[in-house]
Each structure stands twice: as C-alpha cells, then as structure tokens.
Amino acid sequence: MIDAPGTFSNAAAAGEAMHALATELYPICRSITGNGVRETLRRLQAYIPLTVHEVPSGTQVFDWTVPREWNITDAYVKNSAGVRVIDFSECNLHVLGYSVPVRARMSLAELRPHLITLPEQADAIPYRTSYYNETWGFCLTHKQLASLPEDDYEVCIDSSLTDGHLTYGECYLQGDATEEVLISAHVCHPSLANDNLSGIVVATFLIRHLLTVPRRYSYRFLFVPGTIGSITWLALNEAHLSRIRHGLVLANVGDAGALTYKKSRHGNADVDRAALNTLRSSGNEYDVRPFTPYGYDERQFCSPGINLPVGCISRTPHGEFPEYHTSRDDLAFLKPGALGDSLAFCLAVLRVLEGNRVYVNQNPKCEPHLGRRGLYRGFGGSMDSKAREMALLWTLNLADGQHSLLDISDQSGIPYDTVKVAADALLEHGLLKE
Ligand code: ZN
Q: Which of 76, 197, 235, 354 has the fewest other C-beta atoms within 10 Å?
C-alpha cells in the first residue's frame, strides 16, 4: 500500500535526492531527438528499470512524421580577435534548438537576424527552438547583444540533422490488475530545470517508491519528447490504450509556487476527483484549472480521438512565471522542498486511486451496534473520536454498492484517508463487503 501522507516522512530527503538527480541531468543538451535524450535516459537507468525505444526518422505517426535526428557538439560566435563572444559550451541555451550546421564569417548586421534576445529580461538567455522550419540562430542576453560591436565574426554551429531516431523511455510496473495508470514527463528541453527536469525526477522517484509497494494497478511511465514523443507513443500503442484507467502528466513541479491541477478533458474522471479531493484536504493553497487543448502532453492524451482521463500536475503553470523558457529556470529556481511536496502529492493521488472501491453495507437495516464491536476505539491513531464516528457513519450509510470511498469522502467532506481507515475497520468486522 502506498504510504499515508503523515507517514511519508521521506518527502524532504526525497526532495534533496531529486534535486541532486536534476543537477546531474541539467548540463545535458536535450532536444526532441538526439544523444541528449539518450544520455538522459541512460542516466535514469541507474535509478529505475527503463526501456529505451528508438523510432526511425520518417515513421508516420498519425498526422505527424518522426523528424530527422538532431545532434550538436559545439557552437560559437568568435570576434576578430578569436574570442568566443557567444559560446555553446558555456550554456546550451545559446543555440536555437534544431539549428542546421553553419560555418561562415559575417558582419554584425548579417549576424543580427540570427540573434534572439529577451529585451524585457535583459539578463536572461531565452530558450528557443525551430524544429520544423530549417534555420539557425543563437540566443543570448539582451545585455550581451547590446555590448557586441561591429566586427568580422566567425560563426560556427557544429550540428547534424540526419536520418536517425526519436528516442523515448518507458517503464512498466506490473500490478495485480492489467488496468494501467499512465504517467508521463517530457524530456526534450536542454538546461532548463523546472520545465522538464522537475517532471523527470519526480516521475523517477515515483517509480522508485512504487517498486517497493504492492500495487493494484499496473503503472506505465513515459519519458518522451514533448508533442512528437507522446504522439509517437500513442500511434504505436493505440491497440493498448483501453487499459489506461487514469493518467497524469507531470510538468513544472519543482518551483516554489502552490500546486496546480489541470483537469482531464473528461473533467470529472476519477483522477480529477482524486486530485481535487487530495488538494482540498491538504490544508495548503492550490489551484484547479479546467482542461484546455494547450499545455503539455495532456493535449495529445486528451485529443478527442484518444480521450484518456489524463490530468496535469504543475506548481506554477507554464508561461506564468518569468523564468519560464529562459536561463533563469535553473537549479536555483528548482526547490527540493517543492519537489518533495509534489512527489508526496502524486503519491497521495495514487493512494486514493489504488484504494478507492465500492462496498456494500452488510447490516443496512438501522445502524449496526458499533460500540459492542469496539469500533469506536483503536484505529487511526491521532484521529479524534468524533471524526472517527462520523467517518464510520458516513461510510456505512453510503456503502450501498453505488458509492465509492471517494464519493463518500466528497459527499461527507471527510478526508479520504479517514474514510479509508473507517472502511478498513468496518471491513475487518464484516460490516462491509466489496
Ligand atoms: Zn517548455
């Protein structure tokens, strides 16, 4: 069974360990294809049993085609004195993602159309890509651009764009049932911490925890490049999608902001209700958003022809923090405490889904005599007797074969964990049956 919130005492330690893993992965230059993703997945294999899949360029996946593979070894702009004034080896965000190779000399005026800055954040390097429009470019701080004099510049992007593969990772954990919970994180961003590494490390530590506990559901974790990766996986696995009962996308789960849950397209799927129920009883600030066809891979999982019950967990949503898609989304922006809290939240949601069942009261004609059975005492530890009694009464009353434990918690306003403890006690005394 997945730990109850009070007993998940390792959240803080897990937060530090997740931050350390993010630190290890941070320097790698990832993109939607290429060796950066391979290297990232290879390192994750030291932590979790991860299968790496390679899908050839040119593979048709629904309306999309797996692109050519992009790799890069070096890139720079040198001034006439031979000094690198823009240097990929200093920060991989300096190169526009998927830049085609270039070797040329040019004036500042010729170079300028290929330079991308963020005037409103003059100290930040923007993160930009051009996957489907062949071009090249450099990203730099606005300050850096302002300091570039007219000169004869040497421009080099030592990249390759060739037929190769799209690489993704998959981790399947067999449970008692063949029904699955799908959890995905995107792995396609270079040195950005909250946007991609936070989801990767929380998913990795979720797997590590799930490996140690009995599981009702089977779990399938995907580490995929955003958009094209989930589209590819869905296209190649369409025959198996009916097994997926619940799903979550993890993105931006490591900043200091409060938790945000974005509902699935269903809006009221069990995963949506489990997430809301958990947030409500957390006592912390949180935000809930309706589904929108924008964001991360929930866009694909919740497209009308796929329509899986997949929600998205974030802290501050994408685009709503100034560090988003800039060099300021760095390891200092990623908070160990927030990572630990996000992991604990994911586990709490999974615990609801794992334990949520429908029971039938075996003594439905008037209340059973609870005192005689000793049911007012001795469960739940810190729970006070009134809360315990209310949980028992609500559970007995709504256990009519129509209401799940989550329904009982939602309807009574009693935290799910309290209802679960009450149901387990009633079950033990033969007062409930599944
Ligand atoms: Zn992003």
A: 235
Q: Which residues pair with 380 in a beta bridge?
A: none
- Per-residue tokens: 352: 């609801």
Cα-to-centroid distance, 326 and ligand 1 (Å): 10
Q: Tell me whether residue 14 is exposed, middle or buried, using C-beta atoms within 10 angstroms of its C-beta: 0 to 12, 13 to 18, 19 or more.
A: buried
Ligand 1 centre distance from Cα of residue 180 (Å): 27
297 CA distance to ligand 1 centroid (A)?
A: 11
SS (H, E, C) 176-200: CCCCEEEEEEECCCCCCHHHHHHHH
CA of 128 to the centre of ligand 1 (A): 9
Cα(387) to ligand 1 centroid in Å equals 44
* Burial of 22 from C-beta contacts in 10 A (0-12 / 13-18 / 19+): buried
CATH of 358-433 among 1.40.20.10, 1.10.10.10, 3.50.4.10, 2.130.10.10: 1.10.10.10
Task: Give mean pLDDT, residues 243-261.
Answer: 98
Has this prediction a pTM greater than 0.85? yes
- As a whole number of Å, the CA-based R_g of the chain is 25
First to last CA, the chain: 18
Q: Sketch the domain layout of the chain as residue ranges.
A: 11-66+165-355, 69-162, 358-433
> Residue 106 and residue 20: Cα distance in Å, rounded?
42
Cα dihedral 116, 250, 27, 322 in deg (nearest 10): 40
Whether domain 11-66+165-355 has CATH 3.40.630.10:
yes
State the fold for domain 69-162.
Answer: Glucose Oxidase; domain 1 (3.50.30)
Residues 6+ apart with CB under 8 A from 369: none
Question: Residue 390 C-alpha to ligand 1 middle, in angstroms?
Answer: 46
Q: How far is the CA of 167 from the centre of ligand 1 (A)?
A: 18
Ligand 1 centroid to residue 321 C-alpha, Å: 12
Reading the block at residue 185, the tokens are: 């994180």
Band of pLDDT at residue 372, cut at 50, 70 and 90: confident
Tell me which amino acid residue 384 is: D
Residue 376 confidence class, pLDDT cut points 50, 70, 90? confident
